[in-house]
Amino acid sequence: MEIRQFMYFIAVAEELHFGKAAKKLGMTQPPLSQQIMNLEEALNVKLFHRTKRKVSLTEAGQYFYREVTKIQEKLNSVIQNAKLIDKGMLGMLKIGFGPDYGTLTKILKIYEQEYPNVQIQLEQMPTSEQLMALDKKEIQIGLLPGPIERKNIESRVVAEYPFKVVLPVDHPLAKEGGGIDLIDLKEENFIMTPREIGSAYYDSIINICNKAGFSPRIRKKTHELQTVIPLVSANMGVAILPEMLGYFKREEVVFLPINNCDVTLKNCIAWNKEARSPLIDLFLEIVEGI
């Protein structure tokens, strides 16, 4: 049996006339009649009653028609879905992300409007875990600080954030709305994430402080940037964070600009170039348009 024989059968069952069915299918009547006979022989079932004046379905033919039309609908759906998958418009897109909720939500809002049939699976993870997941092809997209220096990972900057000093609201310098000279914090305890979690952030902070004339005294480390803020609010130290973390701001802390500091945190979209796919290509098109 062949799929085309099912299509021939459906046409005859709906027209109940071999001549009309053949015209509908764009073929002549003799080969259509032969194909129906071949189908009946393969099934060892009589599907049609045939007389010189009339063609009608047998009881088995009526049942076969009902079920074959279901198969046809399913096949059409499968074909359509295969085309959508090939174009990157259907499937599952796994995205790893850090604390840059603003950029993530802006991209996803547009992406989900354009491609509603793509399921998004989000997983929050530190930079080091995102890079590992990209290497292993466990995620297709990462949203993480750059630059990213790996041969198999490509990236594109999607957002850039200035750094701010984060102080407890009752800190003596908390009222310095005009900006902070970092050298004034050289005796403070700093709260940071360790370098192995994300080198781009860690190296930026060390660089900023070194340019200001001191090395930060790191006394507390946490594995997620957003958890730095509650530690500052508990008076465990001060911090330097990218402005995007203002999303997690609370009343017990203040974010203040840093005087004479032009260093920024560059957040990137990253992907494994060995796993490039239509899904990733369409996602990158959305990112380019923002």
Task: Please explain how this structure is put together.
- The chain has 290 residues and is an alpha/beta fold.
- It has two domains: 3-86, Arc Repressor Mutant, subunit A, CATH 1.10.10; 90-290, D-Maltodextrin-Binding Protein, domain 2 (3-Layer(aba) Sandwich).
- The protein is 41% helix and 24% strand.
- The chain has nine helices and eleven strands.
- The strands form three sheets. Strands 3, 4, 5, 6, 9, 10 and 11 form a seven-stranded mixed beta sheet that branches.
- Strand 7, helix 7 (199-212) and strand 8 (217-221) form a beta-alpha-beta unit.
- The model has no long low-confidence stretch (mean pLDDT 93).
Layout of secondary structure:
Elements: H1 3-15, H2 18-25, H3 29-43, E1 48-50, E2 55-57, H4 59-86, E3 91-97, H5 101-114, E4 118-124, H6 127-135, E5 141-146, E6 153-168, E7 189-192, H7 199-212, E8 217-221, H8 228-233, E9 239-242, E10 253-257, E11 264-272, H9 278-289
Parallel strand pairs: 3-4, 3-5, 7-8
Antiparallel strand pairs: 1-2, 5-11, 6-9, 6-10, 6-11
Helix pairs in contact: 1-2, 1-3, 1-4
Brief summary:
With about 290 residues, the protein is of the alpha/beta class.
- Mean pLDDT over the full residue set: 93
Q: What order do the SSEs take from the amino end to the carboxyl end, as H and E? A: HHHEEHEHEHEEEHEHEEEH
Count the strands? 11
Instruction: Describe the main β-sheet briefly.
Output: 7 strands, mixed
Low-confidence stretches: none
CATH architectural group of the largest domain: 3-Layer(aba) Sandwich
Strand content: 15-25%
Tally of alpha and pi helices: 9
InterPro entries: LysR_HTH_N, LysR_subst-bd, WH-like_DNA-bd_sf, WH_DNA-bd_sf
Keywords: DNA-binding, Transcription, Transcription regulation
Protein name: LysR family transcriptional regulator
Pfam family, one: LysR_substrate
